[in-house]
């Protein structure tokens, strides 16, 4: 054990004997902070602490794989979006980390969750180390939950928290807001440093396991990731949820990135209102809301503008329809600009390269701006075809038909590959009134099944990217007139 180490990276937790401007382990800049070395591992707090808990005598009891197992007991908050992201309720004895930028709505969500549980007869406690009691009370008032029997306390010392909770009267759920404000008095470093965050979390995780209660830890992440927390905690807790959202957008997405008791990639969608977070049970309608508004506006081609395509995606177990928007403009000087919001820029580079090399277009030489409307972040390769459709449409100034959804993965050869959950995607599109879907060419025999799934939805198989290009031919007046005069140009 390196007892010499005096500096700890606040991003990844790596230890180093000397200060350095850059962490050798993770490459983060300016992240090394002096922390006093631990001569011994942090002591448990009191007789029930980590030091004495667990098995004595170092004996292991091996058991067979098959045995009596009931699924873990779960508590439902009644906030369906939250319960689903957690894998169908919160598991007793587990620790959940909720990370996210400051101000995104973590405290709001968790106060609502605690109140919802309390209202259903569970014992819920909320410990704030960040805000004053009055602030939390004001928020509770605003959320309309001030009368629910949530136990509220202001504390930052883990010793105090353990003293209050580590007995038979432990609550069913305790929210710790936030883990960065908690400290162990057995450690010398300041609250918020890696060793404090790790040590405090370790105690609280131990508490959850011993007493079978649910511990929810709030952790702030800054853009620079400089505040210690979520990164080092991810390995320790059972479930990691990230709360995300674009500033300026009302809705927030709760995403499971790790879950020992359920699927990851699941998302919950909320809208921040003046009375807290409201569930959004049908996100597609929300993400496409701006689109239907745009259609009623007067404009070209019956309200459709070029450079947009609706992607039929899957988030976790749920289909979600979103609009992919692209703007392609001649690059004036030097290296073409790329700006991507909500998607992977490496993947964009790949698709422009395939469009150029396999379809004879010259997209790559232009400035490209790509946006996933509404602030959703998409990671599925299935979005490739929709991104390509938006790019081609922007380049040729030919709108993708308004009632069409698109999905499919693109290979380097330009071939369009089938993707998972095609049926669910088509169903959702049909439900929302779409009439046509541009989809990968399925292997023989399965196509028939595909066509039947989405009632009233015609599927157009796209086997190669060039077939997509052929569907969006260049408008004849393209790039001849300056943009302003286009509307008045006579048709040829
Ligand atoms: P908060 O939960 O304090 O964020 P975090 O704990 O992640 O730092 O949320 C803060 C923001 O939410 C704040 O900008 C105000 C807004 N908000 C509402 O719009 N409506 C509400 O009912 C509440 C309670 C907060
Ligand atoms: Mg907060």
The coarse overall form would be: globular
Structural class: alpha/beta
Bound molecules: thymidine-5'-diphosphate, magnesium ion
Strand tally, please?
A: 23
* Arrangement of strands in the largest sheet: 8-7-9-10-6-11-12-13-14
Q: Give the percentage of residues in beta strands.
A: 15-25%
Rg:
27 Å
Largest pleated sheet: 9 strands, mixed
Number of helical segments with 4 or more residues: 13
In terms of quaternary structure, the protein is single chain
Mean pLDDT: 84
- Helix content bin: 25-40%
Termini, distance in Å? Answer: 79 Å
Spans where pLDDT lies below 50 across 5 or more residues: 46-55, 294-302, 478-492
In words, what does this structure look like?
The chain is α/β, with parallel strands linked by helices and 492 residues long. 26% of the residues lie in helices and 23% in strands. It has helices spanning 80-85, 106-119, 133-143, 158-165, 194-211, 230-233, 283-287, 289-296, 345-359, 384-396, 422-431, 447-453, 465-471; strands at residues 7-9, 15-16, 32-34, 74-75, 90-91, 95-100, 124-128, 151-154, 173-177, 214-220, 239-244, 251-259, 267-273, 276-279, 308-315, 318-329, 338-341, 367-372, 404-406, 409-410, 416-417, 436-440, 458-462. The strands form 5 sheets. The chain has a 9-stranded mixed β-sheet with strand order 8-7-9-10-6-11-12-13-14, with helices on both faces. Strands 17-18-16-15-19-22-23 form a 7-stranded mixed β-sheet. A 3-stranded antiparallel β-sheet has the order 2-1-3, with no helix packed on it. Helix 12 links the parallel strand 22 and strand 23 (458-462). Helix 9 (345-359) crosses helix 10. It is globular, with a radius of gyration of 27 Å. The protein starts with 6 loop residues before the first strand and ends in a 21-residue tail after the last helix. The structure holds thymidine-5'-diphosphate and magnesium ion (MG). Thymidine-5'-diphosphate (TYD) is lined by residues 100, 102-108, 139, 142-143, 272, 274-276.
């Amino acid at each position: 054990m390196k007892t010499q180490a005096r500096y700890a990276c606040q991003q990844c937790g790596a230890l180093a004997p000397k200060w350095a401007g850059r962490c050798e382990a993770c490459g983060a800049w300016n992240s090394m902070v002096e922390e006093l070395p631990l001569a011994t591992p942090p002591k448990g707090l009191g007789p029930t602490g980590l030091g004495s808990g667990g098995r004595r005598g170092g004996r292991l009891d091996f058991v067979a794989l098959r045995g009596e197992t009931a699924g873990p007991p779960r508590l439902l908050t009644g906030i369906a979006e939250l319960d689903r992201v957690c894998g169908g309720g919160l598991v007793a004895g587990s620790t959940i980390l909720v990370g996210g930028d400051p101000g995104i709505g973590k405290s709001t969500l968790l106060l609502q969750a605690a109140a919802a549980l309390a209202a259903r007869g569970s014992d819920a406690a909320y410990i704030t180390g960040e805000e004053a009691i009055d602030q939390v009370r004001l928020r509770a008032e605003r959320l309309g939950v001030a009368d629910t029997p949530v136990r509220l306390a202001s504390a930052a010392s883990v010793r105090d928290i353990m003293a209050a909770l580590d007995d038979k009267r432990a609550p069913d759920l305790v929210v710790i807001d936030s883990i960065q404000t908690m400290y162990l008095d057995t450690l010398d470093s300041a609250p918020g440093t890696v060793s404090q965050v790790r040590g405090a979390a370790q105690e609280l995780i131990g508490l959850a396991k011993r007493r079978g209660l649910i511990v929810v830890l709030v952790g702030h992440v800054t853009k620079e990731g400089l505040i210690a927390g979520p990164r080092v905690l991810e390995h320790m807790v059972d479930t990691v949820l990230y709360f995300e959202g674009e500033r300026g957008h009302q809705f927030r997405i709760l995403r499971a990135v790790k879950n020992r008791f359920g699927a990851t990639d699941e998302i919950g969608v909320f809208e921040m209102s003046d009375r807290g977070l409201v569930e959004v049970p049908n996100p597609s309608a929300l993400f496409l809301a701006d689109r239907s508004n745009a259609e009623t506006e007067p404009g070209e081609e019956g309200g459709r503008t070029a450079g947009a395509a609706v992607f039929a995606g899957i988030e976790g177990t749920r289909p979600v329809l979103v609009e992919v928007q692209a703007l392609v403009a001649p690059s004036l000087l030097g290296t073409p600009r790329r700006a991507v919001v909500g998607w992977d820029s490496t993947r964009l580079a790949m698709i422009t390269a395939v469009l150029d090399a396999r379809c004879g277009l010259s997209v790559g030489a232009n400035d490209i701006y790509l946006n996933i409307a509404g602030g959703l972040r998409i990671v599925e390769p299935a979005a490739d075809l929709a991104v390509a459709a938006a790019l081609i449409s922007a380049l040729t100034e030919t709108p993708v038909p308004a009632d069409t959804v698109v999905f499919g993965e693109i290979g380097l050869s330009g071939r369009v590959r089938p993707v998972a959950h095609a049926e669910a995607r088509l169903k959702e599109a049909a439900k929302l009134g779409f009439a046509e879907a541009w989809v990968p060419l399925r292997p023989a025999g399965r196509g028939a099944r595909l066509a039947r799934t989405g009632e009233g939805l015609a599927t157009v198989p796209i086997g190669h990217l060039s077939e997509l290009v052929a569907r969006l031919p260049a408008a004849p007046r393209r790039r001849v007139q300056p943009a302003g005069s286009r509307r008045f140009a006579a048709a040829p």
